[in-house]
Amino acid sequence: MIKTEKPNRLSPVNLPHFMRGYIAFIVAALLFFNYGLLIDDNKNMNLMSSDIKISYSEDGNNSSDYSYLSGDGVVIAVADTGIDLDHACFRNSTLETGSPGIEHRKLVYLNDTIDDWDNRGHQQYRHGTHIAGILACDPVGGDLDMRSMSYNSRLIFQDIVNSSGWVPPDDVTELLAEASKHGAIINSWSWGDNSIEYTNRSKLIDEYTSENPWSLVFVAAGNNGRTVLEPANSYNVVSVSASNSEENGSVWPSSSKGPDVNGRRGIFVSSPGVNVVSAKADGDKFSMNNDSYSNTGTSMATPMAASFTALLQEMVVEDFGFYPSAVMLKAMLAYSGESLHADYPDFIQGYGRPDLSNFNNNFKIHDSYKVDDWVSVLSKRGYELDDLKNNPWNGSEASGPFLSTNDSWTNSYKPIKGQDLKVVMSYNARSNDYAIDDMRLIVRTDDGRYAIDDDFGNREYSQMYYESWNSPLSMNSSNETTVMIKLPYEELEGCEWVTVEVVAKNIFNGTNKGMLGLEGDKLGFGIIISGVDDLTENSAPKINIVNEPHKGENISQDFSILVNVTDEEGDGFEIGFRGFNDNFSIEFDRCFAIGNKTSQINCNISIDNDFTPFIINREDWYLEITVRDDNSSFWTTSKSNNYTTANFTIWIDNELLGTDTIQKDVIDNIDNDNELGLISIGLFGLIFGIIIGACVMFSRLIRPSTNDVLPPFFTEDE
User: Fold this and answer.
1) What single DSSP character describes residue 182?
2) Which of 37, 314, 333, 410 is most buried, judged by most C-beta within 10 A?
3) CA 80 to CA 126: how far, in whole Å?
4) How far apart are CA 330 and CA 527, in angstroms?
5) Opening angle at CA 60, ends 59 and 63, nearest 5
């Protein structure tokens, strides 16, 4: 409704009749005189146009096929009872055992200082050959049932058993240094003492892996059905329990379980370890045997997990172009886990059984330790633990970041519709001789909520909180060095962005400032994220014209313009249409539209409704389409794009235009001499105003007085 106002002192109701007539005369005259001047300023006038039609199309998500993975290019170190080198799984060819070395088909290096074979009479004879077969068996002329997951990987074998029994070195870092020197990141150890304590061996593993980011140790949890044994209770190892191989399998009852003596979960993953078929040693160096047998235990589950991780190493090299660090591999291994009995990590199954299909959705990784050549970095420092301690590394050549206390790494992403958000972060902590390092993982949403690492509350997904309720860093820290957040896609509906944050809540402040390692004050991490896309700077929506007026075309009836618009970011856009020439601009308001992703817009234009009362018979008409990205996010700005058609002519006979008397040459004269036309229209208005004014004055003279009557102010409904 148009709102009325009370009359003021100059209201016509308080004036004599002749004065009212005089004013009407003046107003009419001025209005009509100025019409010719006002019409040139009507570029912002909005006129009606016809309806529009919009159609949408959306892209789906891609998945990856990792069937090509075979461990190619990966070297795995295994310390065990010995290896039957002439077995079909390992010998150089069908007829030749070959000598271990860089050119050997399977064995890059053999440490035979204790023993040179998997010999009869030695403790757990055949154990080493069986383990080696699970890791890298690719039989030549043998039983393909023995073939390993990572059958194209190669081995460093360290024999640590003689006739007296198991004799691993007192300083087990010697094994790790030797493995690194010959190119192995992954180490597989299916042994340990019958102790649940955090031993010196446990401590040495944590010290070495803190100094060498490219050393990852897989350790069997034990077969006692109770607490995890050493050295599987080291902070930085992958401790493995055994499961059966069924699709809906379960953990082998005799597997050791957590929590460990440090109060941590104790189990990292659970791999098939029941009735595993692999190579069988015969104790004969010259038999060229092809034998196999099955065995059960966490000893078998451990190389299964290591073999799977060899595929992950190959994946990163092939798809991302660098060798992953130990923490990157741990994060990916945890991410791959498929629950056996619970939907969250626990002290029996850890993160569950590794499953390559969990990488079918798009994912992103970040490795603080990413370098072009990790062997070169280590060789400059030395491979032995003492060498590494004496030559600390500041992370130069690596991608970083490396965090000190209160530092953080933050990145924002766009949730993918219909996909759960899953994030796993891993880091290596110092041994328990040092204050425990505490790195936190946080996911924040744009509506003020957050989730904190390892806060599942006995359910599949992480708990969510509002920041106003509590600060995430005030939440209890887990004692784990690999942590997870998982959110269902329903929780992220309507969220334009999420932020993933790694916070160094408390890092040991060592004497080597700005350095990594045991006495440093910085730590790196590996992280994998799925269910998100990168937030990128918007590009302007693209305009593709399907149908438009042709150059020089004369239009005498209603017409349309058909446009395809593509917004690659898919965050929405708005589109508007106008017609214009040197004198006029007409906005086609009803063709305004909002689109998303890919849209087709059809704007139907009516000459009678859209162009009248403008002088439309002209040769210099154009149509302009303007598309603006509707993005208003914090990380980007709106972008626009324009398209202008070629000029066209409108020439019609219309009574409103008087085209039967106003000829084309007159229109041309108006275009060439606009001022003359405006004056002519003004004179016409003046004459017409005089006539109207005279009539008003005459009528007022003969009309009775109505001074005491309020004027009939016009109202209309909303």
Assistant:
1) T
2) 333
3) 10
4) 9
5) 135
**From residue 639, how far is each of 307, 497, 544, 571, 573 by CA, in Å?**
49, 19, 17, 12, 9
Distance, CA of 485 to CA of 280 (rounded, Å): 42
CA distance 557 to 572: 33
Strands 573-580 and 618-629 turn out to be antiparallel
CATH code, domain with 522: 2.60.120.380
Question: Nearest-CA neighbor of 155 among 118, 190, 189, 106?
Answer: 106
Asked if 572 and 596 count as a contact pair (C-beta separation under 8 A), the reply is: yes
Co-location of 84 and 185 in the same domain: yes
R_g (Cα) of the chain, nearest Å: 40
Residues 172 and 220 in one domain: yes
Residue 471, pLDDT score: 87
User: Token digits for 26?
Assistant: 């003046």
3-state secondary structure of 680: helix
CB 665 within 8 A of CB 613: no
Q: 499 and 572: one domain?
A: no
Q: 320 vs 186, 298, 316, CA distance in Å?
A: 19, 32, 5
CATH number of the domain residue 635 falls in: 2.60.40
Task: Region of 136 please: left (phi>0), alpha (psi -120 to 50) or beta.
Answer: alpha
Considering the domain architecture, whether residues 681 and 613 belong to the same structural domain is answered as no
d(CA 698, CA 691): 11
Locus of tokens 């108006």: 670
Residue 464 has pLDDT above 80, yes or no: yes
pLDDT band per the 50, 70, 90 thresholds, residue 82: very high
Tokens of 353: 């059984």
How many CB atoms sit inside 10 A of residue 140's CB?
A: 18
Residue 60 CA to residue 419 CA, distance in Å, equals: 11
* 188, β-bridge pairs: 78, 218
Residues 231 and 324 in one domain: yes
How many other CB atoms are there within 10 angstroms of residue 362's CB atom?
A: 16
The string of pLDDT tens digits covering residues 224-258 is 999 999 999 999 999 999 999 887 789 999 999 99
Q: What type of residue sits at position 238?
A: V
Total structural domains in the chain? 4
In a domain, 667, yes or no: no
Contact 480, 265 (CB under 8 A): yes
* Omega within 30 of 0 (cis) for the link into 613: yes
546 belongs to a structural domain:
yes
Indicate left, alpha or beta for 143 from its phi (over 0: left) and psi (-120 to 50: alpha): beta
Are 345 and 201 members of one domain?
Answer: yes
For residues 169 and 311, membership in a common domain is answered with yes
**Residue 325, token pair as written in the block:** 């660090």
Residue 363 covered by a domain: no
* Greatest alpha-carbon span in the chain: 137
pLDDT (0 to 100) of residue 494: 87
Which single residue is written with the structure tokens 């570029």? Answer: 43
Q: 656 lies in a domain?
A: no
> Rounded CA gap, 82 and 63, in Å?
41
Residue from 519, 636, 649, 71 nearest 311 by CA: 71
* Boundaries of domain holding 407: 375-534
159 contacts: CB under 8 Å, gap ≥ 6: 79, 80, 81, 82, 83, 110, 111, 112, 113, 114, 115, 116, 117, 128
